[in-house]
Amino acid sequence: MRRKIAVIGDRFMLPEVFREKIEKACGDNLDIRTLEAAWPDEPMEFGNAALGLDKVKEYFGDPDEVVDFIGDAEIFVTQLAPLSETMMQRLPTLKLVAVSRGGPINIDMAAARAHGITVVNVPGRNASAVAEFTIGAILAETRLIRVGHEALRKGEWRGDLYRADRTGRELNEMTVGVIGYGNIGTKVVRLLRAFGCRILVTDPYVQLSAEDRNDGVELVALDDLLSRSDVVTLHPRVTEETRGLINKDTIARMKPGVIFVNTARGPLVDYDALYDALVSGHIGSAMLETFAVEPVPADWPLLQLPNVTLTPHIAGASVRTVTYAAEQAAEEVRRFIAGLPPVNPC
Questions:
Q1: Distance of alpha carbon 234 from its chain centroid, rounded?
Q2: Is the pLDDT of residue 307 over 80?
Q3: pLDDT at 213 over 70
Q4: pTM of the predicted structure, to 2 decimals
Q5: Which of 3.10.450.50, 3.40.50.11290, 3.40.50.720, 3.90.930.50 is the CATH number of 3-121+318-338?
Q6: Of 58, 135, 156, 175, which sits with the fewest C-beta atoms within 10 Å of its C-beta?
């Protein structure tokens, strides 16, 4: 019997890549149908956008169209398509959902368990991409790459950036504080070692490896990290504990002139407090990749500050992320067909 698999990709996680990796892992005795959604050329929605999707945090796709497309498939592979309780009620043959993301935030997990649907994901799928991007973000601020670029685009030759009182600093003389030591934070630290900087880590749920300790990485309390770091970079997950972690009080504990980098998630930061600290100069500069509201409003005050670099939530976007996530999803499909337990159950 040919196993029926429905794949909804998009213009990042390409459906043809999913198909290629699934066929390579599972053979050709499959009935695979694919659909390409318009994300990211069109914005995703959030859980309060439609009736019955309140337990889905973010998604892309019309629920009725998604249900019609999945139809009688036993396996569903996707990145952003939603699956709610009412949708699952209409999909009695569905047994496996493979989400090619770090978390299944487009799936109502309680409903999936109640319906006996196994959900798997791809933790750390873009960890290398985000870690590399973070290093680039830090260098953009420490070596004044953004400042020089913006001036030159305006026809201004900033020779004054060679002055000792205005030029940038080298990482080998700086202390970098890494908040959150999961898949991304550990890769950031690994890359930072090459620069010879002092590295501080704070995360209440991890311990340093022997390699970390031998290289002089220190595991410290948050307050210690904030008071000692020349650069602070964020990498925790958003939880009730970490939401608003960077706020007026924690910013006040940072070193004057600190460089702040957020390539993690917008809800980790109180952006009003960050704005005030950037205007006052307590935070020297910031590189922001994620925001409280996305897309960012055109009149957002932080867009006007000269000491901020901003990018549109692209740190995790790389060609390798696409192929790696598709390979991991395909392996979960193979294991399901073979009757094996999943590698990354949710």
A1: 11
A2: yes
A3: yes
A4: 0.91
A5: 3.40.50.720
A6: 156
